[in-house]
Amino acid sequence: FLGFLPKWLIINWLTLNNFYLISFMLISLTLFMIFIYMQLMFSSLLFNYDENLNKIKYNNFYLISINLMSLFSLIFCTLIFNFA
């Protein structure tokens, strides 16, 4: 969160002062770096795959509810910061 907040504040300041090109470049480079980090993370997770994980049974309702709560909390956090 500490790396996201300063970048978000800079992008907000740039868009308020009509520096759209620089803010677009900052957003696109950030998305590119997130893509690179996700590729590194997924490749490291696939190499550490264990066959014993298939035997664990998870409750689908539990996983879906946790996933929905995390997604709605992200939306709720952005609404709090925009309207507070």
TrEMBL record:
<keyword id="KW-0496">Mitochondrion</keyword>
<keyword id="KW-1133">Transmembrane helix</keyword>
<protein>
    <submittedName>
        <fullName>NADH dehydrogenase subunit 2</fullName>
    </submittedName>
</protein>
<feature type="transmembrane region" description="Helical">
    <location>
        <begin position="61"/>
        <end position="81"/>
    </location>
</feature>
<feature type="transmembrane region" description="Helical">
    <location>
        <begin position="20"/>
        <end position="40"/>
    </location>
</feature>
<keyword id="KW-0812">Transmembrane</keyword>
<keyword id="KW-0472">Membrane</keyword>
